[in-house]
Amino acid sequence: MFNELDFPPSIDLARLPTPLEPLERLSERLGLQLLCKRDDLTGTTLTGNKVRKLEFLLAASLDAGFAGVITCGGEQSNHARATALACARLGLDAHLLLRTADPAQPPAASGNLLLGRLAGASVEWITAEQYRERDALMAAAAERLQQQSGDRYDVIPEGGSNALGAWGYVRCAQELAHQLGRVAATVVYPVGSGGTAAGLIAGCRLLDLPYRLVGVCVSDDRRSFQQRIAAILRRFAERWRLNVASDAEDIELWDGYVGLGYARSRREELACIADLAQTEGLVLDPVYTGKAMFGLLSELAAGRLLGEPIVFVHTGGVFGLEAQARQIEALL
Length: 332
Ligand SMILES: Cc1ncc(COP(=O)(O)O)c(C=O)c1O
Known about the structure:
By secondary structure, this protein is α/β, with parallel strands linked by helices. It folds into 2 domains: 20-48 and 162-329, Rossmann fold (3-Layer(aba) Sandwich); 50-160, Rossmann fold (3-Layer(aba) Sandwich), CATH 3.40.50.1100. It has 12 helices and 10 strands. It has helices spanning 24-30, 49-63, 78-90, 111-118, 128-131, 134-149, 163-180, 195-206, 222-240, 267-280, 289-301, 325-329, and strands at residues 20-22, 34-38, 68-74, 93-99, 122-126, 153-155, 186-191, 212-217, 253-254, 310-314. Strands 1-2-10-7-8-9 form a 6-stranded mixed sheet, sandwiched between helices. It has a 4-stranded parallel sheet with strand order 5-4-3-6, with helices on both faces. The longest helix is centred in the C-terminal third of the chain and has 19 residues, at 222-240. The radius of gyration is 19 Å and the shape is globular. It binds pyridoxal-5'-phosphate. Pyridoxal-5'-phosphate binds at residues 48-49, 78-79, 159, 161, 190-197, 285, 288-289, 315-317.
């Protein structure tokens, strides 16, 4: 029924396919059909959207004979945690460049950071200003570590969001094709560094799926994400000679849901997380999925019409909840 795809080499890290589940009570309340693609169930600690990308990225690191990888993120980065755990599982070293307010006083290990440290990753703390130069800093770290140890280190970009990592979400689109079929569905997902978006867009193009894909921007504005996603798609198209390139303006993203800023929550977003936990037993995170679900429910409440079923992609992130425990508790 669907075209066969020629995937690049990958290793098994995620529990796939993830389930596609109806959100029954919420659907009844809203008077529409809402489903959840449970990518939070790719694993327990190795959970979330990054695991799909790492299946391709780390296969390439191993194949090229790297002894370790370097990646980056915020202090509670899900991607850094998933990379650290996956590296430990594969016998690779992990070195993380993490952004924090004051590198001289790094945060105590909790949530994602605790898990990354537990998996043996080494952490280099950098300021938000240094983080803007993250790619150069990671390249410098790779050279430094090689000089110190004699081993070669691969560099994985922020969020695992490059053309190779995007194949993880081509695979997700393929799963959706089998689970949903060719229907006029709308697929809503959070956008943080663009790799999930690029993979879903590429997958729908390659499989000729009629889904409307809508990304909710959680950390930057629509225009800059459109550019980033279009750039990943261009590289994907060049590297594998596949017709997936897209005009930036054709990539549907919603602005307006960054709220107070990256990893900072408004009361109404946390209330939305509590609502989903209490209505469906579904636990969202405050940094990505909570904002994306708040965006979806706000748009529906404002009368936005979307083809059904609506599929919300739960991209994981549960360990980020702890960082906002006090604010959440105040709502209960
Ligand atoms: C839990 C979670 N959801 C969504 C995203 C956004 O995905 P992407 O970086 O592919 O845009 C991230 C990471 O940025 C994440 O950790």
